[in-house]
Amino acid sequence: MAYERLVRKLTHENLWIYILTLLKDGPLYGYEVRRMIEERFGFKPGQVTSYIVLYRLEKDGYIKVVGEAKGSRGPLRRYYAITRRGSDALRRARLFLSSMLDKMG
């Protein structure tokens, strides 16, 4: 029970860390972000949740839209890239997590 809560807290409830980590490698569109989280990190966030987090990150200046393109079989795709502010937030998060792990021995 405690382990499952920890996993949820460190994955779904901190989705922004995973999104910024992916975007530091280059621009992605929303569906790609969700798919790559599953492939790279092994969990699948909810579709709506992913877009809510993307919206919030954009609103707060951690990511920005760098282009839009019509998908071959679908709606307009908005491509997101990490900003300097997002890179700084990701760096601070990584330092915090690393520090916590070090303290746990």
Describe the structure.
The protein contains five helices and three strands. It is of the alpha+beta class and 105 residues long. The protein has a single domain, classed as Arc Repressor Mutant, subunit A (Orthogonal Bundle), CATH 1.10.10.10. The protein has a three-stranded antiparallel beta sheet. Strand 2 and strand 3 form a beta hairpin. The longest helix has 21 residues, at 84-104. The chain is globular. The protein starts with a helix and ends with a helix.
What is the residue-averaged pLDDT? 93
CATH superfamily: Winged helix-like DNA-binding domain superfamily/Winged helix DNA-binding domain
CATH architecture: Orthogonal Bundle
Number of domains: 1
Structural class: alpha+beta
Tell me about the biggest sheet? Answer: 3 strands, antiparallel
| Low-confidence runs of at least 5 consecutive residues | none
